[in-house]
């Protein structure tokens, strides 16, 4: 009989047992956590959702066990081939202290998460590290006054002694496991299975994205969704976010050359030497000039990856626009527009905050500003004017911690994919409504129409779609309107054409869906009292296309479309050739919908012919009219008016953010 096989099976059995015990502890802890902070009036209404939450939570806890097991897995394999009894005994003793150490760390993080939640109503995030950057003595006093520190430490000490005793006892008893020896008859396959199984536990899913990277919603109730997370995974995510944030923390006033003369940046941005130098923010504060007395609903839709360049190939055979085509022809379409960012979050935050995306900056939603309420932003203004404000996302609101950040921006309703799904009449298998990133776009748009229909007042809605995103799924039963591809288009696509074809069909579905939404909208009563804006986050199809003309601009080119009620549209003279980006959308809407309201913005009203218009992109690209400039570095000095305007605007943006944070 091979004793090294017996050692392997004995250690694996012991590890399995201690992990089961600790998983049970983590589950009990989650139940206590859930019950202690519960925001639910009645559990029975959400009983199935709670069970789904607990199961998802168990899977997330299991990923933590997977990380702990990684070293024992490779240790067992190594020792098997060394075939030394003494080393196995040393390794077994080592495991007692190794597992105790990690269980100690896990327990500390679970309890830290519990305490953190009592202050922030959220799991550990980047703000957790800020606690240690505050007055340490004051922090310790706070804990002493708010918690029964002595009893807690006493119980915790007893817990640690008990934990160590249990681990010691489990690993002290040896057995020969002869009945299970057949499991390791072929060691290579047994160890291969062990490695693969360990990897799968860490990953947590067979899906596209690891479970810890994105935690799906299981309920329409936000609190239940929160409870799937655990303190360990929350800490890992927060630590990763903090490291990235620290690396990307840039002083844009210094980078752009205005460190000792920020007033000069305001002068360049305002194109005037006559500015208020005592209160610089007054220079970017404006008052709306509404041209009628009509109240309007506002709907702003950001369509995933909707770049303009591919539309030049539109034809009957390559009908990528579908139902959207006629609306682009009938209504107001700005085409000299570039995206603020090359990723979704950067462009979305530029839209939501009326400011440019600062190159290489970290998302507000995952930074020190995650719980900062920027009260100069759209939802605050519209709420003050009696609007109902909503943010609707076709995916999970946990993405980029977006849902939480949005709530701090005063959106009264934040709906994710589960909220959308729960609002529709289900007529087929649940899975047919979803793709890996969220719910299919058509249901998002139906949700917007339903919200308008059920409204008892004025609505301001911002929505973000999820289709036209890898892996480029389209719903079962949807018939693509793309029938063939011209030779010209084929010659301009790089890489695998089969993948590009799949991507273009998803693109077509996304545009056709928003076109169908406009069809339905224009047949409703809302066509007379609602303004609709459609734009994109970026033009990610640039990655598989080559451009003949003006590639710097074309690669970043996106649309901004406006539907205006007929009576309003007839009162306006609009130049749709002006430059712009997402920062300009809400300043334009303010002047169409709000009367005599003061607002603060870096962006401009696109309909205002008295000012020059600029589009900004985070790759340090700026356009003005037909001119396009690209910087290599913000530190580069230039006499170019367009470049200096861009740099000054970034410095003004940084000043706004820093001073606003200080006021908070």
From TrEMBL:
UniProt-recorded name of the protein: Phosphoglycerol transferase
Transmembrane annotation, as ranges: 16-38, 58-82, 94-120, 149-168, 180-201
Keywords: Cell membrane, Membrane, Transferase, Transmembrane, Transmembrane helix
Compartmental location: Cell membrane
Organism, as annotated: Aliarcobacter cibarius
Short name of one Pfam family: Sulfatase
Its membrane topology: Multi-pass membrane protein
Domain of life: Bacteria
Membrane in keyword set: yes
């Amino acid at each position: 009989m091979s004793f090294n096989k017996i050692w392997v099976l004995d250690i694996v059995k012991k590890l399995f047992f201690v992990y089961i015990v600790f998983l049970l502890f983590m589950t009990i802890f989650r139940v206590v956590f859930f019950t202690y902070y519960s925001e639910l009036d009645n559990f029975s209404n959400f009983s199935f959702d709670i069970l789904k939450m607990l199961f998802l939570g168990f899977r997330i806890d299991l990923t933590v066990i997977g990380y702990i097991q990684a070293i024992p897995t490779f240790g067992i394999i190594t020792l098997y081939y060394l075939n030394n009894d003494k080393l196995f005994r040393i390794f077994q003793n080592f495991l007692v202290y190794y597992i105790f150490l990690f269980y100690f760390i896990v327990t500390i993080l679970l309890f830290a998460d519990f305490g953190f939640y009592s202050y922030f109503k959220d799991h550990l995030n980047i703000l957790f590290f800020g606690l240690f950057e505050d007055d340490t003595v004051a922090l310790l006093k706070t804990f002493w006054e708010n918690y029964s520190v002595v009893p807690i430490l006493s119980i915790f000490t007893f817990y640690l002694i008990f934990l160590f005793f249990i681990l010691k006892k489990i690993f002290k008893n040896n057995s020969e496991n002869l009945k299970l020896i057949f499991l390791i008859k072929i060691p290579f396959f047994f160890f291969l299975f062990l490695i693969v199984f360990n990897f799968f536990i860490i990953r947590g899913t067979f899906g596209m994205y690891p479970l810890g990277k994105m935690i799906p919603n299981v309920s329409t109730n936000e609190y239940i969704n929160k409870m799937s997370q655990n303190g360990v995974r929350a800490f890992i995510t927060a630590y990763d976010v903090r490291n990235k944030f620290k690396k990307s923390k840039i002083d844009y006033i210094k980078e752009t050359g205005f460190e000792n003369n920020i007033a000069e940046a305001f002068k360049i941005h305002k194109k005037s030497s006559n500015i208020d130098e005592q209160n610089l923010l007054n220079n970017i504060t404006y008052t709306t000039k509404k041209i009628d007395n009509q109240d309007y609903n506002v709907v702003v839709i950001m369509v995933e990856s909707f770049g303009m360049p591919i539309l030049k190939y539109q034809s009957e055979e390559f009908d990528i626009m579908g139902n959207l085509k006629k609306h682009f022809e009938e209504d107001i379409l700005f085409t000299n527009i570039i995206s603020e960012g090359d990723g979704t979050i950067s462009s979305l935050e530029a839209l939501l905050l009326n400011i440019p995306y600062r190159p290489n900056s970290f998302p507000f939603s995952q930074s020190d500003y995650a719980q900062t309420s920027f009260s100069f932003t759209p939802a605050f203004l519209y709420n003050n004017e009696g609007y109902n404000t909503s943010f609707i996302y076709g995916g999970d609101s946990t993405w980029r911690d977006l849902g939480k950040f949005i709530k701090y921006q005063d959106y009264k309703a934040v709906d994710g994919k589960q909220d959308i799904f729960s609002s529709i009449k289900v007529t087929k298998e649940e899975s047919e409504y979803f793709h890996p990133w969220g719910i299919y776009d058509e249901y998002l748009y139906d949700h917007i129409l339903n919200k308008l229909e059920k409204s008892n007042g004025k609505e301001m809605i911002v929505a973000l779609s999820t289709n036209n995103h890898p892996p480029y799924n389209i719903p079962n039963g949807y018939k693509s309107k793309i029938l063939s591809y011209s030779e010209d288009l084929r010659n301009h696509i790089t890489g695998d054409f089969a993948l590009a074809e799949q991507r273009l069909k998803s693109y077509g579905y996304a545009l056709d869906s928003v076109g169908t939404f406009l069809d339905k909208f224009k047949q409703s009563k809302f066509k007379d009292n609602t303004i609709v804006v459609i734009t994109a986050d970026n033009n990610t199809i640039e990655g598989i296309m080559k451009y003949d003309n003006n590639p710097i601009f074309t690669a970043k080119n996106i649309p901004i479309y406006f539907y205006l009620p007929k009576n309003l549209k007839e009162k306006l003279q609009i130049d749709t050739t002006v430059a712009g980006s997402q920062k300009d959308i809400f300043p334009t809407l303010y002047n169409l919908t709000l009367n005599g309201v003061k607002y603060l913005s870096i962006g401009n009203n696109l309909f205002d012919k008295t000012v020059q218009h600029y589009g900004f992109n985070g790759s340090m690209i700026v356009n003005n009219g037909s001119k396009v400039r690209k910087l290599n570095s913000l530190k580069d000095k230039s006499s170019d008016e367009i470049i200096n305007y861009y740099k000054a605007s970034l410095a003004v943006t940084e000043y706004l953010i820093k001073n606003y944070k200080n006021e908070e």
